Amino acid sequence: MTSTFFMFINHMKYAYFILSIVVFLACSNQHSNSTTNDFHISGEMKNVMWKGMLEGIIQLDTIPLNDLYGIGPIEYLSGEILVVDGVVYTSRISQDSSLMVEVNPKIKAPFFVHAHQKGWSKTTLPDHVIDLQSLENFIDSISTETSNPLVFKLSGVFNTASIHVQNLPPNTEVHSPKEAHQGQVNLSLGKDSATIVGFFSRKHQGVFTHHDSYIHTHYINGEKTKMGHLDKVSFNPKDVFLYMPN
């Protein structure tokens, strides 16, 4: 009886030891590249903006590209990245100050958010959704059943858009958002067909959204000649459809 009891105690100790390792590994993963339902976050915006961590920490051609959507800046804040359905678009400012949009999966980012999303639910927008703020509020209102971050996209004809492309001069040190945006080029765009890819989260401000927003969005026009971080947009909700994950 005593021998059986001690064998039982030893088995319990072993089980507790294994459980502790599993819990430790799970907690450790949350502090590196975090994942929620195939939602991946590499690096943090605040580390780039406030600590000058500009070097690329993820190379996009190391990620499976099937059904991939993602956004972030190019390393050293030398441009912008947008992935739409597995196609990696980059935008940079050339020496003659013109905008260059290319397809280039061999690119690195200092922070990046991406998700593999295959199934979409097409949603008609209500009349009051006409810009980024009303879009954010609407997504917030229809996503109350989940606290997880999510990817979304808009497709259609947009009346106006304001985008920017990071263009930090080489070897510039960064210690604040103001310094990080040195050289940034702002573009005002007119009416055009386009796709907007965005990421929404209530708990990742400073990680992949700015401190005062739940969304981070990039814009690319239908001809693939204009792409960048979306600052402002206006549209008629009848001309645009919202796509949310199934």
List the helices and strands and how they pair.
Elements: H1 2-29, E1 34-35, E2 39-42, H2 45-51, E3 58-59, E4 68-73, E5 80-84, E6 87-93, E7 99-103, E8 108-109, E9 112-116, E10 120-124, H3 132-142, E11 150-158, E12 160-165, H4 177-180, E13 185-189, E14 192-200, E15 215-221, E16 227-234, E17 240-245
Antiparallel strand pairs: 1-2, 2-9, 3-8, 4-5, 4-9, 5-6, 6-7, 10-17, 11-14, 11-17, 12-13, 12-16, 14-15, 15-16
Characterise the protein shown here.
The protein is α+β, with helices and mostly antiparallel strands and about 250 residues long. Helices cover about 20% and strands about 40% of the residues. It has two domains: about 1-30; about 35-245, 2-Layer Sandwich (60s Ribosomal Protein L30, Chain: A). It has helices at about 1-30, 45-50, 130-140, 175-180, and strands at about 35, 40, 60, 70-75, 80-85, 85-95, 100-105, 110, 110-115, 120-125, 150-160, 160-165, 185-190, 190-200, 215-220, 225-235, 240-245. The strands form three sheets. Strands 10-17-11-14-15-16-12-13 form an eight-stranded antiparallel beta sheet, with helices on one face. Strands 1-2-9-4-5-6-7 form a seven-stranded antiparallel beta sheet, with no helix packed on it. Strand 1 (about 35) and strand 2 form a beta hairpin. The model is unreliable at about 5-10 and about 15-35 (pLDDT under 50).
